[in-house]
Specification:
single chain, 423 residues, mainly beta, five-stranded antiparallel sheet, 32 strands
């Protein structure tokens, strides 16, 4: 997910009596009879959440006292449990992200103990700094540990940590990681050449060549490895004049297929387009979310931009392109989250607030917006909030200011509230 914010925690005061620190308390999240409610959560804009099977919600967030908390709330958003996972966390407005993995693991990208890194947090254990190359599995995270001639993929979940067998890689080679539900793919790019190895918990295959020099004539612009499931993936190769794809299933390498647009011409992204996100359904198409220039000019001289969703049909060589939203001058992208529900891509993002004058620092969300690959247009619902997160298929949760466009220190700010569902 792309994250945009207007103020880091470092530019805000510590908690005051009107914004008390979150109390540290805990209770079982799976209990059938809910324990008494605790004091309400007061949060910053950095959070993630999902629904639990028992009707409660699990939330990972940065609290207003700069701690990272793992909390449980009920359908009325009353607090049922809070565990403090780390203290004195410093967020970065451009890069900080909070990711809730399963019910008990949290990855927080930011600064702890004077070290800026992705941090793996778990109740009862000290924070663990992760390398830059990590990805999310169905039940945990995977990351890469390097020595000069080998790469080791480690998996961390609720049961602990496991290391796979070392993979011999070229000396000081660049390595990257992509995740399936219970596996990871380690891939090693080297100019036009690409090698990859599939890794499960304790086993790692040797590197195999997915692309070699001379496979395609067009000069490489960008490459994406999209994991469909634990057995298959989609390889995308973009050049200035074309987009080619290759299906990989187990040890079987499919043929390179050059894609065409709806007029039968070779498909290519605009030279000034920016790829924002890419994903591929398990049994369906692939999707590219792109920021593309439009005709005309803004006061700056740059063209205005639009967000376009490109659908790569799995059963043909066609690309279906659909504009999603036109952006105002000065805006290059949107903080969009691209998710899959079967063969359908769902998008959700927020629009900047335009009703406060002046716009309050930190109060950046004016609406929640959704779109999908199977329906035209986008739907929006107004809401003044610091942040909004999608909880499940039908619900969004916001961190709001109950008084509206009021100062950051006003009592009650940072509260949780259900967001209206776009219709």
């Amino acid at each position: 997910m792309l994250v945009t914010t207007s103020c880091a925690l470092a530019c805000r005061r510590k908690a005051t009596p009107s914004n008390p620190p979150v109390a540290s308390a805990s209770s079982p999240s799976g209990s059938a009879s809910a324990p008494p409610a605790l004091p309400p959560l007061r949060l910053e804009r950095f959070l993630d959440a999902h629904a639990l099977p028992n009707g409660l919600l699990r939330i990972a967030a940065v609290a207003r006292d700069a701690s990272i908390v793992l909390a449980t709330v009920d359908a009325k958003l009353e607090t049922r449990s809070v565990d403090v996972l780390a203290k004195e966390f410093t967020a970065d407005p451009a890069t900080t992200e909070i990711v809730l993995v399963g019910d008990d693991l949290v990855v927080a990208v930011g600064k702890l103990t004077n070290v800026r890194a992705p941090w793996l947090l778990r109740k009862g254990l000290p924070p663990k700094a992760l390398p830059a190359d990590w990805c999310r599995t169905a039940h945990g995270v995977a990351y890469v540990v390097r020595d000069p001639s080998a790469a080791i993929v480690r998996f961390s979940d609720k049961d602990g940590e496991k290391s796979a067998e070392p993979i011999v890689v070229p000396l000081e080679a660049e390595v990257h990681l992509a995740c399936g539900p219970s596996s990871a793919v380690l891939f090693v790019p080297d100019g036009p050449r690409l090698q990859a190895a599939r890794v499960f918990s304790g086993k790692a295959a040797a590197l195999v060549e997915l692309e070699k020099d001379g496979d395609l004539e067009a000069e490489l612009r960008d490459r994406q490895v999209l994991v469909r499931d634990d057995a298959s993936m989609l390889l995308l190769r973009l050049s200035e004049t074309s987009l080619a794809v290759r299906e990989v299933k187990g040890d079987e390498l499919g043929k390179w297929v050059s894609l065409t647009d709806d007029k039968g011409k070779p498909f290519a992204l605009d030279p000034d387009a920016d790829l924002l996100a890419a994903t591929a359904a398990k049994e369906g198409p692939g999707f590219l979310l792109v920021s593309s220039p439009m005709k005309g000019a803004c006061p700056s001289g740059d063209p205005p931009r639009r967000i376009v969703l490109h659908t790569l049909a799995r059963d043909s060589a066609k690309v279906e392109s659909r504009p999603i939203v036109e952006l105002p001058c000065g805006v290059d992208a949107i903080p969009a989250k691209l998710t899959l529900e079967g063969p359908v891509a769902r998008l959700s993002w927020t629009e900047p607030l335009s009703t406060c004058n002046p716009v309050q620092v930190g109060l950046s969300v004016g609406a929640v917006v959704v779109a999908s690959s199977d329906k035209p247009g986008a739907r929006r619902a107004d809401m003044a909030a610091e942040a909004i997160v999608r909880v499940d298929d039908t619900r969004f949760l916001g961190v709001v200011r109950p008084g509206g466009c009021v100062g950051y220190e006003a009592p009650g700010n940072g509260a949780l509230q259900w967001a209206p569902l776009p219709k």
